[in-house]
Amino acid sequence: MHGTWYGAEDQVIRFWVKAELILLPSFWEELVVQQRGLRSIPFRTLFNLCAITMLMLSGAVPGWTQGKASSAPPNGSQSDAMTTAIMDLQQQVRELKSAVAEVRSEAAQYRAESIELRQELETTQKRDLASRVSARENSAATANPDLSTTNPASTPAIGLLEQRVSALEDASTLLSGKVDEQHQDKIESGSKYSVRLSGIVLMNLFSNRGTVDNQDIPSYAAPSPSYGSGTNLGATLRQSELGLEVFGPEVAGAKTSGSIQFDFSGGFPNTLNGVNYGLMRLRTASMRLDWKDSSLIAGQDNLFFSPLSPASFASLSIPAFGYAGNLWGWIPQVRVEHRFNLNNGQEITLQGGILDDLSGEPPYSQFNRLAQAGENSGQPAYAVRAAWSETIHGEPLSFGTAAYYARQNWGFNRNVDGWSGMADWNVPIASRLSFSGEFYRGRAIGALGGGIGQSVLYTGDPRDPATRVRGLNSIGGWSQLKFKPVDKLEFNGAFGIDNPLARDFNGFAGDLSLYGTALTQNQNALVNFIVRPRSNLLFSAEYRHLQTKQVYGNSDTAEQFNLIMGVLF
């Protein structure tokens, strides 16, 4: 009988262990379900857990009580009680197993219900999004009757959706670019103000047929030499540019900024293969004070009274048609601007300033700066411009008119008044087609590229006080037609002409050998395409035809083919 008691005690211990092994996984499983937020533990589950706990305690108490009485002599009544306790424990085990199975079944049911609820939630969200898109499309169709048809599911609705998707893609691309810009490494400045590096690495692969003044960046055709074939092929990167911008604090309510830009077209070093080692050249360097409607600019800058140029990456060191009707020059200047904002997005801009008075002559010395004819006058050059602009077809429509005056002293009190009147325009003919150009009429403006770079004529040796000097009159201009079938591709066709007046040569020119080459007309024509697959990458191809006439000479022609690749930064 004593051995029977120990066997019963062993069964009680085994029951306790089994109960813990069965109960704990289910209990933790229920807690995990609760932790994941699938469903809180219901009252029935809590009741089952309490019942299991009571069963375990009820099974443990008899064993503990009998353990205290184990020292008493066993008898028949004790044996019957032990048998009854064991049968009760077995019944409790069966009930415990049933309760655990029920708990597990309920947990599985709750998981299934949670998954079903999640699927219903996702379906509802998709239906809600589709409903909002449909409502917006119906609203857009109501506001724009041209976009609606008798069948709402027809092609116009699809086209509207495609436009919206395209707009979202463009906005996403712009946002990504801004994010990338904010994450890029910044240039460290000596001051606390930000500095931005920019520029372009540009390669030109060119082929010329005929003789030109400059093989890689031609401006006019020249007579064929007595030697050579007049055909050449080459490549250059000296039109690459490098620039820096600095943004400073506000001063008297104006935003301050400055910029400087270089290229490598300042000549060639006297060394082997020096044609590929272009010398660095200062292009522009300016400082700005910008108020809401006014600006003050000081520095070396392009001509504000001749703001446009034909689109070409074959000619950056000298703007396209620079000696064929396009006035240009990077000249030190101080100017002011004021903008009047009118109704309906229209704007009037007034500009005026003074410039370094140049005459188009080469430097007298390589190392020492000596005054030339314009600076010898003792006064600057003056220029003004007025322009009107508005936006149509998403592009700027503008017309401008300008005037320029410069006094020149060619020695021995031989003064010449240089002047010019200019007009410029940019007209969007359609949403992707525009027409632009400039026109000028002037005198003694070789410093601006007018008169094919020629300012004055002499009757004899300019070093002779008896030699008379007269300003060369000229007229010219250029026009360009631009077509952009898509945002990343454009086609350009342009024509320019510069025409010094023949009467000045015929009635005044003395010994033409004094001029080197006296040109009476220069015509340029070009066609090109420019493709930008990425914002920092471009490819282009250009064909240019040049025809130039000389005094008492024949007309010379040349043509150039140019393949271009550039990376902007």
Helix/strand layout:
Blueprint: H1 2-35, H2 43-68, H3 76-143, H4 155-183, E1 195-209, E2 231-236, E3 241-251, E4 254-263, E5 281-290, E6 294-301, E7 331-341, E8 347-355, E9 381-392, E10 395-409, E11 415-430, E12 433-443, E13 456-458, E14 469-471, E15 473-486, E16 489-500, H5 502-508, E17 519-534, E18 537-550, E19 555-568
Antiparallel strand pairs: 1-2, 1-3, 1-19, 3-4, 4-5, 5-6, 6-7, 7-8, 8-9, 9-10, 10-11, 11-12, 12-15, 13-14, 15-16, 16-17, 17-18, 18-19
Helix pairs in contact: 1-2, 1-3, 2-3
Q: In brief, what are we looking at here?
A:
By secondary structure, the chain is of the alpha+beta class. The chain contains 5 helices and 19 strands.
* Poorly predicted segments: 1-9, 20-44, 57-75, 145-154
Query: Which second-level CATH architecture of the largest domain applies?
Result: Beta Barrel
Number of helices: 5
| CATH topology descriptor of the largest domain | Porin
Helix content: 25-40%
Biggest sheet record: 16 strands, antiparallel, barrel
The general outline is elongated
Number of strands: 19
Observed structural traits:
569 residues; 16-stranded antiparallel barrel; 5 helices; elongated; disordered N terminus
Description:
By secondary structure, this protein is an alpha+beta fold. It has two domains: 2-134; 195-568, Porin, CATH 2.40.160. Helix content is 29%, strand content 37%. Strands 1-3-4-5-6-7-8-9-10-11-12-15-16-17-18-19 form a 16-stranded antiparallel beta barrel. A two-stranded antiparallel ribbon has the order 13-14. α1 (2-35) runs antiparallel to α2 (43-68), α1 (2-35) packs parallel to α3 (76-143) and α2 runs antiparallel to α3. The termini are far apart. The relative contact order is 0.08. Mean pLDDT is 82; it is low at 1-9, 20-44, 57-75 and 145-154.
